[in-house]
Structures are given as C-alpha cells and as structure tokens.
Amino acid sequence: MFQSVRYKNKNYLLLALAVVFGWMAWKYAFAKTFHTAYECARLEQMMQEADDAALTMAALQQEAHLLNRQLGGNGTSVYPNVNQELYDYLSRYCGDKKLRIHEFSEPHNYMENDYNIRSGKVIIRGNYVDLIKMIHNLENNFTSARIASVHFFSEKNPQTKKTNLYAQLWFQHIEKV
Questions:
Q1: What pTM does this model have?
Q2: 66 and 94 share a domain?
Q3: How high is the pLDDT of residue 39?
Q4: The Cα angle at residue 127 between residues 121 and 130, in degrees rounded to 5
Q5: For the chain, how many structural domains are there in total?
Q6: Burial of 173 by CB count in 10 Å (0-12 exposed, 13-18 middle, 19+ buried)?
Q7: In terms of pLDDT, which residue wins out, 11 or 1?
Q8: Which residues, 6+ apart, have CB-to-CB distance to 110 below 8 Å?
Q9: Which of 3-7, 78-82, 141-145 is most confident?
C-alpha cells in the first residue's frame, strides 16, 4: 500500500498522523487531566478559605466586642437608661466630695447603620484636684458610657465675687439597635 509512495511523502504523512494523534491525546487525555488538576487546586483553595472564614469571623466578633467595650457599650448595665445610671453614679460620687452637679443635659441621639449613639453633657463645679479625681474615677470605673471630651472653664460669681471652676464632660454611649 505505501510502497509506491516516496519517502518524502511518507514523512509528510507521518508528520500529519503525529499531529492528529497529538491533538487527540491532548483533547481526550491531557486536557482533562490538566483541567481536573486545576479544579482540584481551586477547590482546595476554597476549602482553605472556608476554614479561615470561621477563624476570621471569630476574630472579627472578638474585635467588635472589644471595640464595643472600649466605646462604653458593654451591655452589662442594670439601668435601662444610661443617663439615669450616670446621674446616680455622679450624685453618689459628688455627695462624698466637694463637687456639685451644675448642669445635666438631655442626651442627643444619633442613629447610624445599626447603632444608636447617645451623647450627653454634664457640667460639674468644684476644685481642680477633686474634678481630676472624679474624671479619673469615671474613666476607670464607669463602663456604661465613655468620656468623649472634657473642658475646664471658670466663671466669676457676681454675688459672692468668687471664681468657680467647672468641668464640662461629654459622654457617649453606643448601643446596637
């Protein structure tokens, strides 16, 4: 059959058959193997990401809890109203010291996303050392809200001609709605 074909044509035919067999081997064997290896690597990566997702979720929840505690929203308050708890705390503290609550304003509520942010202002009159001790005590022991700002100012009382020192405290309480 191939005896009448010259060597040059036999080589062309052999080359064409090698190309066809190479293409068939690629199409039916190697391509499927490489595709399966790629899918296996992709699925292993997805499994690793799924395993890491549980750890990441736990870390994010822990970070959110820590931020919530730092911002004064630990949720351990027995008072339904943080302002009432703050007023009771300040009343007890100021009653023992030479401090007086001069002004206690209503809180300002601000809603953002799933959080309710309450900000309130308190002005307390007293001497510098007692005011600093009170602020330190609030920072360390009052966990339902945090002190966002402190401003000291003095005013002269025209009746007694005495200068009074005041501390204006801004409190923030953040709670998840």
A1: 0.55
A2: no
A3: 93
A4: 80
A5: 2
A6: buried
A7: 11
A8: 116, 117, 118, 119
A9: 141-145
What is the C-alpha separation between 148 and 175, in angstroms, rounded?
15
Q: How does pLDDT run across 45-55, given as a tens digit for each residue? A: 988 888 777 77
- Domain of residue 42 covers 1-70
| Number of residues in the chain | 177
Q: Do 94 and 171 lie in a common domain?
A: yes
On whether both 107 and 171 belong to a single domain, the answer is yes
Helix (H, G, I), strand (E, B) or coil at 72: coil
Give the separation between CA 136 and CA 20, rounded to whole angstroms: 85
Inside any domain, residue 76: no
Interatomic CA distance for residues 115 and 33, integer angstroms: 53
pLDDT at 73 over 80: no
In 3-state terms, what secondary structure has residue 85? helix
End position of a domain, from candidates 28, 47, 70: 70
Same domain flag for 92 and 154: yes
Place of tokens 């009746």: 159
Domain match, 135 and 99 both = yes
End-to-end CA distance of the chain: 89
